[in-house]
Amino acid sequence: MASVVPLKEEKLLEVELGELPSWILMRDFTPSGIAGAFQRGYYRYYNEYVNVKRGSIARLSLVLAAYVVFNYRRSHKELKHERPRKYH
Amino acid sequence: MNENLFASFITPMVFGLPLVTLIVLFPSLLFPTSNRLVNNRLISLQQWMLQLVSKQMMSIHNTKGQTWALMLMSLILFIGSTNLLGLLPHSFTPTTQLSMNLGMAIPLWAGAVITGFRNKTKASLAHFLPQGTPTPLIPMLVIIETISLFIQPVALAVRLTANITAGHLLIHLIGGATLALMSINTTTALITFIILILLTVLEFAVAMIQAYVFTLLVSLYLHDNT
Questions:
Q1: Which stretches are transmembrane (chain B) (predicted)?
Q2: What is the pTM of this model?
């Protein structure tokens, strides 16, 4: 392969396209691995946009909007029947 | 419309997994912790609000009652944030479930009453008979006071459930009515205005928290310290 760093430690944007399946399979899918991934993602977002001295309300509203979208997807099945259509 | 009205109060499950756990834990994401002296805006705002509320609520207690400060402050934060997040579109509000509110009310009330009975037995028992009652009325009054004591946790839980659920239902109904009346022009303006007013009134779900914690607080105070 054309990478210098071992495949396991490469970040996603630096993996080459042909190596992608083996990269995905090599990721840590144990519960502690998944929890670690969520924690890392959370702290990346938090430290970059919220934990600064003059954080804006826009990034926080993005979190709330994502929450709304998440709930909409969850309840889509029941909401399908409330659309104003002639034939449901 | 029949089934849809209450569909938003069903406990959310996804493939049999309790999604409701995630939704209950979500408000904790919005309250970060920090060890610094000067924090970011979010934490500073929350710290200021928390200091304001705790000073106002805990000032009436003596030393022993103030050990409950952490518990009561987390209670008000949790209920407040959960109710406010439930006002977002399509959200699920955990405090609409009576099971959860009973689970919050009964242990807290029982803790207060039992603390009062353990540490000041005579004073706690004396609460069952108000001062200056005429002698023939005493048995009946003791029974009435006992009933009013045991109804306190149920009242706390049902009050919170009923208020939040009724507010959400009203929003659903009036919103549906507005959509249905869109084809008939003149009444729509009036109905949308009513929706707006109702939503702002419902934002006083925060006042609900105030009511909850305050009633709990008063009960704690009376039973524990007198």
A1: 6-31, 67-86, 98-117, 137-158, 164-182, 189-222
A2: 0.81
Instruction: Nearest by CB to A74, from B14, B26, B89: name it.
Output: B14
The amino acid at residue A26 is M
Could you tell me which residues come within 8 angstroms of residue B42 by beta carbon, excluding any fewer than 6 positions away?
A50, A55, A60, B32
Q: Per residue in B135-185, pLDDT tens?
A: 888 888 888 888 988 898 898 888 888 888 888 888 788 777 777 777 777
In chain A, which residues have their Cβ closer than 8 Å to the Cβ of B90?
Answer: 68, 71-72, 74-75, 79
Residues B16-33, mean pLDDT to the nearest whole number: 83
Exposed, middle or buried by CB within 10 Å (0-12, 13-18, 19+), for B56?
exposed
Identify the helix (H) or strand (E) that includes residue A52: none
Give dist(CA A75, CA B23) in Å, integer: 13
Interchain CB distance below 8 Å, A67 and B85: yes
Distance between A57 CA and the closest CA of chain B, angstroms: 9
The verdict on B37 touching A (C-beta cutoff 8 Å) is no
The angle at the Cα of B17, spanning B12 to B23, to the nearest 5 degrees, equals 45
Q: Does ipTM top 0.85?
A: no
pLDDT digits (tens, 9 = 90+) for B108-143: 888 888 888 888 888 778 777 777 778 888 888 888
